[in-house]
C-alpha cells in the first residue's frame, strides 16, 4: 500500500480539531523514529501505524503515502532548524567568536532528537533533490549571516567559505554525539576546541575596531 496511485496524490489532511492534530503529531513522531532507526526505504506505512498505536486506516486518512509523510517531516525539520539558526543569528552580534563557535557546533546535535530522521530523509533515493539543496543552502546562508554579524568587516565570500567548514563540523559533531561516527569519549570536546580556534582565528581580523570581547 506504499505505492502511489492517482488517488494517493492528494495533499496530507490538515486536521482542525485538537484530537486530530495530536494524532498527526503521534504518527509523525513514530515515522521519524522508525526512519531514523531503519532508513526511509525500509520503513513501511504499516510499521508507522503500529509504532504510533494507530490503525492503518487512520494513517492513510491523514497521509496518502509514505512520500507525503517524508515531505511533512522534512518541512517540520526545516522549520525547526530555521528557527534555531535565526535565533543564534539574532544573538551573534553580541557574541565573541568562541561563543558563536560553541553555539553553532552544538546546534544540530542539540536538536537531533527533534530532527532525528533528517539524515535518512536527506539521503533517501527519492525525488527530493530540490528540497535537500534548499535545506543545505539555507543552513549555509544562516551560518554566514551569523558569522558576519559577529565579524561585521567579514566579506560575503569568506563568510560563505567559513560557513561551509562550520556546517561540516556541525555534522561531524552530530555523528560523534549520537554514535553515527567513529569517536572517543573526549573527541566532542576536542572538536569544540578546534571549532573555537578556527572561528577565533578567522573572525578575529574582521571584528569591529575598538571592540574587546567579553566587555
Automatic annotation (TrEMBL):
It holds the Pfam family TetR_N. Residues 21-81 form the HTH tetR-type domain. Coiled coil: none annotated. This is TetR/AcrR family transcriptional regulator. The keyword DNA-binding applies. Residues 44-63 bind DNA. Keywords: DNA-binding, Transcription, Transcription regulation.
